[in-house]
From TrEMBL:
It comes from the Bacteria. Gene3D superfamilies: 3.30.70.20. InterPro entries: 4Fe4S_Fe-S-bd (IPR017896). Residues 5-37, 40-69 form the 4Fe-4S ferredoxin-type domain. Pfam families: Fer4_10 (PF13237). It comes from Candidatus Desulfacyla euxinica. This is 4Fe-4S dicluster domain-containing protein.
Length: 74
């Protein structure tokens, strides 16, 4: 379970891996995996996120959100 960062994919906006899959190649720390035609978040890798936003920029339908959980405690 991630303590600091949560990466979320909005499945209503995501067009699927066959049509896109850009997030999987974009992330330098392998946070995106595959399940069938859907990208999934590899939970145990989430705190490796560098907040580089490459996945967000690669996702044309704007389906990815990076939540900074640590900011909730400020
Ligand atoms: S980049 Fe966005 S639309 Fe493309 S597979 Fe990933 S989450 Fe889905
Ligand atoms: S912000 Fe960067 S490190 Fe974090 S999930 Fe997206 S591509 Fe990966």
């Amino acid at each position: 379970m991630s303590e600091f960062i949560r990466v979320e994919i909005d499945s209503r906006k995501c067009v699927g891996i066959k049509e896109c899959g850009e997030c999987i190649g974009a992330c330098p720390v392998n946070i995106f995996g595959k399940k069938g035609d859907h990208p999934v978040i590899i939970q145990k890798n989430q705190d490796e996120c560098t907040l580089c936003d490459l996945c967000v920029e690669a996702c044309n339908p704007d389906a990815i959100a990076i939540k900074k959980l640590y900011e909730n405690n400020l």
